[in-house]
Amino acid sequence: LTADHVRVVEVGPRDGLQNEKKSISLKTKIELIERLAKTGVTTIEAGSFVPAKWVPQMASTSEILQHLLRTPPQSGNQISYNYLVPNIKGLENLVKLMEAESAAAGANSDSEATTTTEISLFAAATEAFSKANTNCTIAESIERVRPIVALAKEKDIRVRGYVSVALGCPYEGPDVSPLKVAEITATLLEMGADEVSVADTTGMGTAPRTLELLRTLTAAGIANSDLALHFHDTYGQALVNTIVGLEHGIRIFDSSVGGLGGCPYSKGATGNVATEDLVHTLHSLGMHTGIDLEEMARIGSWISDELGRANDSRAGKATLAR
Ligand code: HMG
Ligand code: MG
């Protein structure tokens, strides 16, 4: 990555759709992912291997994985598809499917694959959120992560970690300890996570507290290149906090096309910052993303219509109105 290149991680098909009231068909989900893969974005969170009882909207993730393994993107871009796994069972289910697909492809498999499959796992910075989101304590969730990373490494699967509620918790309020966030981030990296996305789940983050958190992470010896930032836009501060992150040297940011989604365990939380808004801001600052903003805006408008919701991207709507 050059200093002026930002990697945008498109989380709409997972973080976005998991919290939309209206479930959409498998066909539409696949169409969304395949259209996103043609915009120039290089990492797409495509689903999660969670029990349907917990997150019914993610029930078709196995079919999505199978489809994406069988159908390389037509754009020729190198794409990483990422799947969230909450526990070892989620990863085992993913690995089983991947191995079955690769056995079926056999000798015909393309040695120069244009897609890679990655996973994300998560821990939270407060006890109350940990209990609500993963039904266990922070310490238990860290122990739950250990075998997931070990199995992923054995299978050569890249691992992203998330630290939720890093800038505010729906149960404990905005004053989450930056030292606790740094401690969990460092632990995930030591265990072997390839990058950690520090998440403002509730959107309570402000510019000063974002800066304080980033300085604490740096003081704990965590390299900027190991970090991503994941802003939900509940209070409209996501882009402000993005600029703080950019100035601090972070070059990976998560976002969701059309600003889809929220979090089922964070009442009132809106979606992630819209990808169109993030890309517009980054380009205005002379940063490169490789993303075609107009096509991203068309996708944001289309998927919002499919979901029967308003398009939450200001830059997306303005781009299409030009
Ligand atoms: P639990 O109920 O304690 O699980 O949930 P359990 O181990 O007791 O198992 C209960 C049943 O589920 C068993 O089946 C298991 O086999 C089955 P039964 O015996 O009753 O028939 N099971 C599974 N089935 C399919 N896939 C699996 C799986 N695991 C167990 N992976 C659990 C614990 C972790 C599973 C649950 O709490 C959970 O799924 N949590 C995840 C919730 C979630 O997806 N939250 C949203 C994603 S995180 C997020 O959005 C934040 C993020 O965007 C960053 C940010 O903004 O903060 C990443
Ligand atoms: Mg999120």
TrEMBL record:
Keyword Plastid: no
An example Gene Ontology molecular-function term: hydroxymethylglutaryl-CoA lyase activity
Biological process annotations from GO: ketone body biosynthetic process; L-leucine catabolic process
Pathway membership: Metabolic intermediate metabolism; (S)-3-hydroxy-3-methylglutaryl-CoA degradation; acetoacetate from (S)-3-hydroxy-3-methylglutaryl-CoA: step 1/1
Annotated keywords: Lyase, Metal-binding
Domain Pyruvate carboxyltransferase: 6-297
Catalysed reaction, written as an equation: (3S)-3-hydroxy-3-methylglutaryl-CoA = acetoacetate + acetyl-CoA
Keyword Protein transport: no
Protein EC: 4.1.3.4
Family: Belongs to the HMG-CoA lyase family.
Record-given protein name: hydroxymethylglutaryl-CoA lyase
Species assigned in the record: Talaromyces proteolyticus
